[in-house]
UniProtKB/TrEMBL annotation:
Residues 149-172 form the Glucose-methanol-choline oxidoreductase N-terminal domain. SUPFAM superfamilies: FAD-linked reductases, C-terminal domain, FAD/NAD(P)-binding domain. It comes from the Bacteria. Belongs to the GMC oxidoreductase family. InterPro entries: Cholesterol_Oxidase, FAD/NAD-bd_sf, GMC_OxRdtase_N, TAT_signal. Its cofactor is FAD. This is GMC family oxidoreductase. PANTHER family: CHOLESTEROL OXIDASE, FAD-DEPENDENT OXIDOREDUCTASE 2 FAD BINDING DOMAIN-CONTAINING PROTEIN. GO terms for molecular function: flavin adenine dinucleotide binding; oxidoreductase activity, acting on CH-OH group of donors. Keywords: FAD, Flavoprotein, Oxidoreductase.
Length: 544
């Protein structure tokens, strides 16, 4: 199915009519390779026997950049996405579930919610839900729950929109084979522009009730000698102002974020994916999950796909052939696929570095209790716009996060990104046929140690305490989760310096698995910019 503008272009229509009239879905006209490619791309969900010029696994940042730039280079692609296409409303008239009380639309194939802030006053706030292909996956990988977006748009559907370019010195340390000049002069600006990244109007920030929580977070950090910084975002801040004025339906100001935003947030379906599908050269199969990739007889790759229904039942299995395969299933999705294909002998020549150097971006969550005179507000925007930047001094960049509970709770919540050097590996378990992750809870201790220095100092200065009731009973640190999985197919190790998988021409990695474990800030701008850099090289050298 095709997405993007509601009205198909005339070329899309005439192409569809042509296919409908002739029954041609797979190319039979061998004039030139690019013509064959164009003729071969089906304008519908994939079916067994289809051959596509380019198959993209996953529709998050890496996948969306790939689809757009291939289309602009004249190459048809098909995106296979395991999650739903979040465009149709449920029985309540809403596409997304409410943040305060998520229903089945909130979680990926679970019978019970798995809230990142799981407790209040010691009691669990999780509740039973129907199993459904919901928008947020809390994927358990042993000692860690990895939160990821599921649906057309990947993580952009559920994330806070914080669009942060890392410090150049840190970027140069983690990805030394990448020309930083090119990244900072060309590809970061290109990513930020196409994602629609902007800054909050600072005068409004200072005056609105909805960012009181941020101003309190800034005040206490600065009183302890820490720097704070405004953080750009993909949320439309003009829309947010109108939300406050009551002129438009509320989204961020109604707490919407981790289960989807109805308005205001420029998620990928409104940016890269909208542009990509508007070309008429990109099609998407939602609720389709890639399970196997292996060289096909002759040329290209055979890709096995399970089609699932909204309850997660497999309703069809399909095998298609792709001339090129782009892995963009996210750090965990891509790593799991590659590790299991290598271990099972389907892609035996993959580099030994596949599955290595995975990290949590040093994520750890913590909350503090403020004094009664430091109210954080019953009104809170769900979109964070400020961080404590103690990266150079303490190895900590902490997002001052909202806790939009709709009541005054005097809570300051933080998601800290820390300089945690611990890494883990993905491993195939031949008895279960599953891929596991070696991450242990002890490896998160370094994140706690680093963050504790910062927040102990703030608590001491303010004479305040940690909340110990929000992540379990008597648990100060939420060290059992990450929002920022990174690594598993690291650039220039598991792939060449542009994401090509060694030993398999025409197979590429395009997502967060290229970034080794820790990018020092929220990662999607870097994932996008790196994908922009790599696809530019691939289009120039491999496709023409
Ligand atoms: P991603 O966006 O995860 O896309 C991968 C896609 O592949 C997903 O749609 C999957 O459903 C799909 N997929 C996986 N396996 C398969 C398969 N086998 N077959 C078919 N499809 C498959 O990957 N980052 C920031 O920079 N700023 C933030 O404010 C921020 N907040 C966040 C808040 C939350 C709650 C979460 C969960 C994440 C947040 N992130 C944030 C992280 C960010 O969303 C994440 O780094 C990117 O989405 C990763 O991009 P990728 O392209 O690697």
């Amino acid at each position: 199915m095709s997405r993007g503008s509601a009205v198909p272009s005339s070329s899309q229509l005439s192409r569809r009519r042509f296919i409908a009239a002739t029954g041609i879905a797979a190319g039979a006209v061998a004039l030139s390779s690019s013509w064959v490619s164009a003729a071969a791309a089906p304008r519908r969900a994939l079916n067994t026997g289809d051959r596509v010029p380019a198959l993209i696994i996953g529709s998050g940042y890496g996948g969306s950049v790939t689809a757009l730039r291939l289309a602009q280079a004249g190459i048809d692609s098909h995106i296979v996405e395991m999650g739903r296409d979040w465009t149709t409303p449920g029985s309540d008239g809403k596409i997304f579930t409410a943040t305060a009380s998520p229903d089945k639309r909130g979680y990926w194939l679970r019978n019970r919610t798995k809230q990142p802030v799981s407790n209040f006053l010691g009691a669990s706030i999780d509740k039973d839900i129907d199993k459904y292909a919901g928008i947020l996956d809390a994927e358990n990988m042993g000692a860690i729950n990895v939160y990821q977006g599921r649906g057309v748009g990947g993580g952009s559907l559920v994330n806070g929109g914080m669009a942060v370019t890392p410090k150049r010195s840190w970027f140069e340390q983690i990805l030394p084979s990448v020309d930083a000049n090119e990244m900072y002069n060309t590809f970061y600006p290109r990513a930020n522009a196409t994602l629609g990244v902007t800054n909050i109007d600072q005068a409004w920030f200072e005056s609105t009730d909805y960012y009181k929580f941020s101003r309190v977070g800034r005040k206490v950090a600065e009183r302890s000698g820490f720097k704070t910084t405004f953080v750009p975002n993909v949320y439309d801040f003009d829309y947010m102002k109108q939300e406050e004025a009551g002129a438009v339906p509320k989204s961020a100001l109604d707490g919407e974020v981790i289960f989807g935003n109805h308005h205001g947030k420029k998620s990928l379906p409104k940016t890269y994916l909208a542009q990509a599908t508007a070309t008429g050269k990109v099609t998407i199969s939602p609720l389709h999950r890639v399970t196997k990739v292996a060289p096909a007889p002759g040329s290209g790759y055979g890709v096995e796909i399970e089609q699932i229904d909204e309850q997660g039942n497999i309703v069809a299995t399909k095998t298609v052939i792709a001339d090129k395969v782009f892995f963009a299933a996210g750090s965990v999705g891509t790593s799991k696929l590659l590790v299991s294909m290598k271990a099972q002998g389907h892609l035996p020549n993959l580099a030994g570095a596949v599955g290595q150097e995975w990290g949590t971006n040093g994520n750890v969550m913590v909350a503090r209790a403020n004094h009664a005179w430091d109210a954080t507000g019953s009104k809170q925007s769900s979109i964070p716009t400020m961080g404590i930047d103690a990266w150079d001094t303490n190895g900590v960049f902490a997002e001052i996060a909202p806790f939009p509970a709709g009541a005054e709770l005097w809570i300051s919540l933080y998601l800290a990104i820390t300089k945690n050097p611990e890494r883990a590996q993905f491993q195939f378990n031949s008895s279960t046929g599953q891929v596991g992750l070696s991450w242990t809870q002890a490896q998160a201790q370094k994140s706690i140690d680093l963050a504790k220095v910062v927040f102990d100092k703030i608590n001491k200065k303010e004479v305040t305490v940690y909340r110990s009731d929000m992540f379990g009973s008597n648990k100060v640190w939420n060290d059992g989760l990450t929002y920022h999985p990174l690594g598993g197919a690291v650039l220039n190790k598991a792939t060449d310096n542009y994401g090509r998988l060694n030993g398999y021409p025409g197979m590429y990695v395009m997502d967060g698995s290229l970034v080794p474990g820790n990018v020092g800030v929220n990662p999607f701008v870097t994932i996008t910019a790196l994908a922009e850099r790599n696809i530019a090289n691939i289009v120039a050298n491999d496709l023409h």
